[in-house]
Write the structure tokens for this entry.
Amino acid sequence: MRPIPWYRAWIYTINILLILFQLIFLTWAYWLLTQPRFEYIPIDFKDVFVITTLIAISIQIFVCLCGIIGVYFSIRPIVKIYWLFMIPLIAFDILAAIVWSIKFHYIHKDFSSFLRNFIVEKVNSENFCFEWRNIHDTLNCCPKLKVRESCPSSWIECHNTFRKSCDKPLLQWMHSEIDPLVAILYFLLTPLKLTVVIILRQDIAELFAEIFYQGHPSLITRQWVSRDSDDEQEIITMSSSRNSRDEESVGSSLLQKHYLKDAKIDLDLGKDQKERQKLSLTYN
């Protein structure tokens, strides 16, 4: 079994993590929006910002699946879809953060009036008193006068002037439930997408090249042949130059031997002449 190339392993890992955190986000968001208490928060499934965010998360899951499928089956158009969608999704995250910040600002600003109007609408609904009693007990706050008048229950502790109203505790509860979703979006999903765009950019380029050459093996053969021919030509050139240098060295060594031989002959002739001169002097 061939090992998975490391850049493919990185792409698999990042996209699996993205899909996992996106599914956690969707599950948590659905559970939160279906809670009875969340009816008293001006955020629901009909909110255009909620719809846009859920659609964006669904698109991100689709894009990540395209990345995994395209890499696994080496399908270049699908990998291109995955790559082209990543940068717009990061830009959408930044824009969504600005829009949600503005929305939460207005939620805090208008929450008291919203809660007052909503209580008037829901005062005769089923479980209205039970929900407010639960809010009163868990958040340690006093509901508005309309709730206390409508629900036959003991609100004696709410006559204490130091008892706080439920506006601020409800907002704090909302943030305690929504902040993990924000953390998943902007401290997990966005950094992972930035990792794909910035750190894995070269790996995506290598993957494109690999897929391209898998579809055009003749280009690899031609490239290898051209490289081999160039290497052979270089080897021939090097060998010829080496042979010429060897021939020159051999010729120079032969000349040196010839000169040494002539010098030795001259030296021997000089010695013979000196010996003859000595003999002639001796006879005389």
Notes: The helical segments are 6-33, 48-73, 76-122, 128-139, 145-150, 167-199, 201-215, 217-283. The radius of gyration is 44 Å. The chain has two domains: 6-215, 220-284. Confidence is low (pLDDT under 50) at residues 223-230.
